[in-house]
Amino acid sequence: MNRTDQKTNELLAQVVERFCFHCEKAKSENPIVASAATKMCEVEIWEMWALTQD
């Protein structure tokens, strides 16, 4: 991982928090909630990747 500036680090921390939240929601009994949360996790993985690239 490249060293990043303060703003990028803050954005990355927010994405990680959202990712953790959606991972918990992905375990929901409600299939609609679980499906939407799983899809959000995939988006957040890409966001984390993008924030750590040059």
Strand content: under 5%
| Average predicted local confidence, pLDDT | 91
How large is the radius of gyration? 13 Å
Q: Count the helices. How many?
A: 2
Largest sheet: none
The helix/strand class is: mainly alpha
Please tally the β strands and state the result. Answer: 0
* Topology order in helix (H) and strand (E) letters: HH
Determine the fraction of residues in helical runs and give it as a percent range: over 70%
Overview of the molecule:
- The chain is an all-alpha fold and 54 residues long.
- Helix content is 76%, strand content 0%.
- It contains two helices and no strands.
- It has helices spanning 6-25, 31-51.
- It is elongated.
- The termini are close together.
- The relative contact order is 0.20.
Short description:
This protein has 54 residues and is mainly alpha-helical. The protein has two helices and no strands.
Helix-strand layout with pairing:
Elements: H1 6-25, H2 31-51
Helix pairs in contact: 1-2
Jot down its keywords.
single chain; 54 residues; mainly alpha; 0% strand
